């Protein structure tokens, strides 16, 4: 459930997508929220991105999970009491399958509870898992992270192992990441564990290539936001009039994606009953993919009430998965 509907230009803006689009395109500078990338079209494009050589994140995190699956199992097992393997933003679960496979073979007592805002991707995941792992207990939760997690906490009792893979935490700006993790912390018990993936600072060219692949899938993924507005909100974007522009600032570790207007133009969005003006060269900020170093990771954990128990690197030291638990100190 979203916030209360509000009325703009005599139109009741009822959906979160409509409201957020209105607010983002009315702001200076303009922005759109990255969570709206993921409709059925966006899910397909993201799977293509994950398979690209340039998108090193997938291989690095798969390598970590493959090498550390035994150690992770030992961390999670805790005298073989059952646990709820709860994944935030599970997507197609491709990398998680490495753990599922291992835990399943080792007869670990767990249940898999993937959460995602895209019900489309959850349906695909559920059918794939029931074919690959008959007998594995899977229950999916569609919705925004905390709505879904609150529902899950009401319905399920037990120790939780939370997975937040793929460097999805990087899609939050620093202050939002702290707020997000503090909210997560409040929904966890002392014995719960969190595995969180961070993409690390590295050669800026490697990072820029990952967000600007020559086959153009990242550009299509970014432009899908405008297509989605056209599909769902009666938008009239001519998407060829915008281009995808990634940037990376090595001093802050901020990789950002923008859509830039090629011309002066007005775009009407029917369901918002509003026409938005774009100047030539004007940008819409669409996504941050924050890159971290170890100091930043420890700092983030401390600010959000966690302690870092373990950090697992891939062989290139491009990416880490880190194991966190609630800290004994209270959040400041
Ligand atoms: C960067 S992808 C990562 C997918 C997967 N964890 C991986 O590592 O490949 C982010 C995933 O989070 C989901 N997501 C984004 N924002 C969300 C939100 N606010 N609530 C729940 N899921 C969200 C998307 O649908 C997408 O599947």
How would you explain this protein's 3D organization?
- There is one protein chain.
- With 332 residues, this protein is α/β, with parallel strands linked by helices.
- It has two domains: 108 residues, no CATH class; 177 residues, Rossmann fold.
- Helix content is 38%, strand content 26%.
- The strands form four sheets. It has a seven-stranded mixed beta sheet with strand order 6-5-4-7-8-15-14, sandwiched between helices. Strands 3-13-10-9 form a four-stranded mixed beta sheet.
- Helix 2 packs antiparallel against helix 9 and helix 3 runs parallel beside helix 4.
- It is globular, with a radius of gyration of 20 Å.
- The chain starts with 5 loop residues before the first strand and ends in a 6-residue tail after the last strand.
- The model has no long low-confidence stretch (mean pLDDT 94).
- It binds S-adenosylmethionine.
- S-adenosylmethionine binds next to strand 5.
The total count of helices amounts to 10
CATH class (first level) name of the largest domain: Alpha Beta
Strand % is 25-35%
Main sheet: strand order: 6-5-4-7-8-15-14
Name given to the CATH homologous superfamily of the largest domain: Vaccinia Virus protein VP39
* Overall spatial form: globular
CATH fold type of the largest domain: Rossmann fold
Helix content: 25-40%
Bound molecules: S-adenosylmethionine
N-to-C series of helices and strands: EEHEHHEHEHEHEHEHHEEEEEHEE
Structural class: alpha/beta
> How does the major sheet shape up?
7 strands, mixed
Distance between the termini: 30 Å
Uncertain ranges: none
Q: Give the number of DSSP strands.
A: 15
If you average the pLDDT, what whole number results? 94
Radius of gyration: 20 Å
The number of domains:
2
The CATH architecture name of the largest domain reads 3-Layer(aba) Sandwich
């Amino acid at each position: 459930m979203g916030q209360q509907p509000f009325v703009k230009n005599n139109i009741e803006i009822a959906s979160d997508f409509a409201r957020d689009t209105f607010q983002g395109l009315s702001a200076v500078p303009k922005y759109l929220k990255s969570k709206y990338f993921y409709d059925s079209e966006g899910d397909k494009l993201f799977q293509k991105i994950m398979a690209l050589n340039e998108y090193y994140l997938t291989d690095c995190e798969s390598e970590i999970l493959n090498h550390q699956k035994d150690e992770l199992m030992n961390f999670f097992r805790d005298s073989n009491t059952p646990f709820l393997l709860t994944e935030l933003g599970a997507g197609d679960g491709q990398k998680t399958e490495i753990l599922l496979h291992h835990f399943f073979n080792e007869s670990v007592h767990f249940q898999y509870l993937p959460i995602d805002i895209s019900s489309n991707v959850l349906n695909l995941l559920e059918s794939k898992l029931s074919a690959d792992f008959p007998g594995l207990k899977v229950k999916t939760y569609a919705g925004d992270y905390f709505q879904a997690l609150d529902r899950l906490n009401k319905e399920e009792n037990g120790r939780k192992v939370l997975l937040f893979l793929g460097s999805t935490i990087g899609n939050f700006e620093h202050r939002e990441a702290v707020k997000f993790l503090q909210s997560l912390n409040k929904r966890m018990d002392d014995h719960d564990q969190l595995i969180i993936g961070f993409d690390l600072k590295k050669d800026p060219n490697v990072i820029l290539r990952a967000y600007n692949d020559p086959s153009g899938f990242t550009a299509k993924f970014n432009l899908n936001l405008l297509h989605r507005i056209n599909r769902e909100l009666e938008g009239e974007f001519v998407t060829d009039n915008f281009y995808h522009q990634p940037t990376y600032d090595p001093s802050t570790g901020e990789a950002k994606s923008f859509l830039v207007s090629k011309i002066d133009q007005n775009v009407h969005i029917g369901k918002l009953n509003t026409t938005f003006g774009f100047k030539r060269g004007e940008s819409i900020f669409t996504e941050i993919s924050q890159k971290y170093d170890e100091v930043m990771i420890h700092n983030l954990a401390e600010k959000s009430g966690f302690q870092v128990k373990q950090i697992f690197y891939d062989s290139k030291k491009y990416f880490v998965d880190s194991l966190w638990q609630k800290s004994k100190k209270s959040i400041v």
